Every structure is written in C-alpha cells, then in structure tokens.
TrEMBL record:
Disulfide bonds join 65-69. It holds the Pfam family SCO1-SenC. The keyword Cell wall biogenesis/degradation does not apply. Keywords: Copper, Disulfide bond, Metal-binding, Signal. Cu cation binds at residues 65, 69, 155. Residues 1-18 form the signal peptide. Belongs to the SCO1/2 family. Residues 27-190 form the Thioredoxin domain. This is Protein SCO1/2. GO terms for molecular function: metal ion binding.
Length: 191
C-alpha cells in the first residue's frame, strides 16, 4: 500500500507543471515599488501607481548616454514589438539620472526614436536624487571638458520589473536580449 501511495505521489509530481521562472534576478521577498510622482516628458502628471495592472519595466539613464542607454532602449523597443498584440502588458519607464540636461522636451524627442509609448520622467536634482536613493541607483558625474555641461554620467544599468500589483519583482542586468525581457514580462503578466 505504501508503495502504491508513493508511486502515485511521484507520478503526480512528475506531471505537475512547474511555475515559470523569471530570467531576471528576483527580489525575494518582493517589495512595494517606491511611488514616483512627477511630470512626464509630455507634460502630464505622472504617478507610478497609475500603471497598476501592467508590468512596468524601468530603466534609469540619460539622453547623452553613448552606449548603454540606447542599447537598452533598443532592446526594450524590440521586446515591445515581439509582444505584438500583447504589447499593452508592458510599459517602459525611462527615469533620467541627468535632470540638468534632460528636459521634458529632450526626453520626449529622445524616447520617440525608440518607441513613442515609452514614458520619460525627470525632475529637479533633489527629486531625482530621492528616486535614485529609493531604488538603490548610483549615478556619478564625470567631467569631459571645460564647460559645466560637458560630462558623462556613470550609473547603475539594470532594468527593474514591477508587477501588475506594484511590487518590485526582478532586476535584469545590462546586455540581456529582448527575448529575456519578453519572457519576464509574460511571466509577470500571467500572474
């Protein structure tokens, strides 16, 4: 009898489907994404909590970035295309680490080169520093010339995945393919 019971348990375990696994690093436990309330690049009032019901993929970057930011935005645009009719599952949020140069108009123009659905936000130096602190982002200015506005910004280069309930769930490092983004968006959207 014990053998029959054990065999039945093993058979059930073998046929049960495992929950899909994220390709990103997972926040364990998940935690509430810190609220963000600023003006968006299009001039509208923006609140992160207004995006509940969608998977939000957050990139911290800046418009003068030479390599990492545009490569990441290109991968996000490709992921958006690969989602096809399910593209509404994902909202990309680009948060400036360079509020002195990244005006709302500049952000809007820059992001439109990748996908017009991407939302860009910026604010005062103090507001953006507080958001970076909330999300554990580092950003350091590196002078490049004589002008005060000639510099690059070294910054953390991860994508943050926020689930439909507003919880920080995963962190994807720079350089991962669009297919990994699509996979994680679909896993989180299906929950």
């Amino acid at each position: 009898m014990k053998r029959a019971w054990l065999a039945a348990l093993l058979l059930c375990g073998a046929t049960a489907q495992a929950a899909p696994v994220l390709k990103s690093g997972v926040f364990s436990p998940a935690r509430a994404a810190p609220e963000i309330a600023l003006k968006a690049a299009d001039g509208s009032d923006f609140r992160l909590s207004a995006l509940r019901g969608r998977v939000v993929v957050v990139e911290f970057g800046f418009t003068h970035c030479a390599a990492v930011c545009p490569a990441t935005l290109a991968a996000l645009a490709q992921a958006q295309q690969k989602l096809g009719p399910h593209a509404e599952r994902m909202q990309v949020l680009f948060i400036s680490v360079d509020p002195e140069r990244d005006t709302p108009a500049r952000l809007k123009t820059y992001l439109a080169q990748f996908d017009k659905r991407f939302i860009g936000i910026t604010g005062t130096l103090e507001q953006m520093a507080a958001i970076r602190k909330d999300y554990g982002i580092t950003a350091t200015r590196h002078p490049m010339g004589d002008s005060k506005l000639e510099y690059q910004v070294g910054h953390s280069s991860y994508l943050y995945f926020i689930d439909k309930k507003g919880m920080l769930r995963a962190l994807l490092p720079f350089g991962r393919p669009a297919d990994d983004i699509v996979h994680d968006v679909n896993v989180l959207a299906a929950e």
